[in-house]
Amino acid sequence: MTLSDDRINYLSHLILKELRAKGGANFPDEAKVLAGVKQAIHQFGSLLDTLDTQIRKKIGTLKRNIPEGSREWDLLYRQYFDEELAKKGL
User: Fold this and answer.
1) Angle, alpha carbons 60-51-66 (nearest 5°)
2) What is the DSSP letter of 64?
3) Across the chain, what does the average pLDDT equal?
4) Tens digit of pLDDT for each residue in 48-62?
5) Alpha carbons within 13 A on the beta-carbon side of 13
């Protein structure tokens, strides 16, 4: 999952705003909090990219050739994706 720096910046500010509004959180150093949120978004995106690669490879190694974009391929992709997220505790 590739997001532009502008999109990540926007999302990190939204998250910080929600944390303040919902939890009444007050952060003494907002720059550090924003940097941490941005890093977490980057790491999650990298994880999703890795999972995508693994899942595509797993589907590609099945005995039957399942064309990408078919209903069966989509169902397998979702199933494997959910399984991998569960393994990682997400």
Assistant:
1) 20
2) S
3) 91
4) 999 999 999 999 999
5) 5
Q: In whole angstroms, what is the distance from residue 47 CA to residue 83 CA? A: 14
Other CB atoms within 10 Å distance of the CB of residue 12? 19
Distance of CA 89 to the CA centre of its chain: 13
Question: What dihedral do alpha carbons 34, 37, 38, 44 form, nearest 10°?
Answer: 180
Number of separate helices (H) and strands (E) present in the chain? 3, 0
Residues 84 and 52: their CA atoms lie apart, in Å, by: 10
**Cβ proximity of 8 and 41 under 8 Å:** yes
Query: Beta-carbon neighbour count of residue 45 at 10 Å?
Result: 14
